[in-house]
Amino acid sequence: MDLDSSLIRDGCKFKMGNGNHVKFWLDTWLTGFYLANSYQALFHLSSSKSGFVSQMGYWLKDTWYWNLKWRRPLKASETLLVQRLMSDLNLAAIHRLKEDRLIWE
After folding, report:
1. How confident is the model at residue 60 (pLDDT cuts 50, 70, 90)?
2. Of 35, 45, 53, 88, which residue has the fewest beta carbons closer than 10 angstroms?
């Protein structure tokens, strides 16, 4: 099954594995909603609008660190949104050795 097919993605939610097939902003994987909709202002500022979860951070030893990139420096109000997003992201479990899985909704 091609996980990159938009037909397959519609009506599905991802169970996070390593994040290689889950689009950070454009797939339903964290809160039950697209992050692009939940955080529209940040989505527009992102320099990786179609990036995968695995491209939005890095592993250091056995710990995952988020490293989001923006097109310009953030304003104070946007920084507050990033803090809220980071709180949501801290609920995510990224698994270095597991594959992502689709769950039909």
Report:
1. very high
2. 88
Q: Are 9 and 16 contacting, i.e. CB atoms less than 8 angstroms apart? A: no
Q: What b-and-e string marks burial along 10-37, b requiring 16 or more CB atoms within 10 Å of the CB?
A: eebbbebbbbebbbbbbbbbbeeebbbe
C-beta pairs of 26-35 under 8 Å, 24+ apart in sequence:
26/50, 28/105, 29/53, 29/92, 30/88, 30/89, 30/91, 30/92, 31/88, 35/85
Tokens of 63: 């710990």
For the chain, helix, strand, coil in percent to 5 are 30, 20, 50
**Domain limits of the chain?**
6-104
**pTM of the entire structure?**
0.85
